[in-house]
Predict the 3D structure of the following.
Amino acid sequence: MNSDYLELLKEQFNQRIDFHEKRPGITQLIAPFYYEDGDMLDIFYEESPEKTKIRITDYGMSLMHLSYTYDLDTPNKERIFQNIISENGLKEQNGNIYIDVDPKHLYQMSLQFVQAIAKISSMRQFRREVVQSLFYEMLEEFIYDNLNKYNIVKNVQPLPDRDDLEVDFSLEAGKKPIYLFGVKDVPKARLTTICCLEFQKARLPFRSFVIHQEFETLPKKDRSRLTSAADKQFIDLEDFKKNAEQFIEREIA
């Protein structure tokens, strides 16, 4: 690897970094970037298979560090990890995270790589935030994987002249359909309340189930209004996963 690129990179970092040759052709970045346990991030430079580019890589060390306290042992965790990889333009192969860059972009991409690795190493801390962003996706995944026998229909508008009142999922269960609403925030809670009340006003035959991302985070007045309007509420996704079929079967009986 051309040492001129590394010297330029050192200048761009205001001489706050250094390099260590791990073995011929592989250079480690020595810089004040750390995993959450205090160890320095493992970042290396080598010649890319595309001869005109430089590969920035971690040689699988980031996932190894993460595994000390947090395993990517579910589809949702793996999805979060892959989202971070794709959002930062990186690639991953057998745990090795890398990107091939043009030498003139080495500084910018080094910073981006550092930020991505730091984010991956902190997945245990920010998992709650990321999982919340996937709430509707996770809800849909569970419904189609586990409740498919109830003939799921997505995005139903029970009142033909009110396309603003939409049900997330309708299940055929017994004499009345069950309308499922995912509620992640205050606006969705209020819209769900309006939907339930308008459907009741129109005398539609249905039962309403509300699945919250986190019931207790809603303001008290919104919790009260929704509790009055809906037939059944699940305080979070785990509650729904655990008890949904039992309640549906009771509706059918």
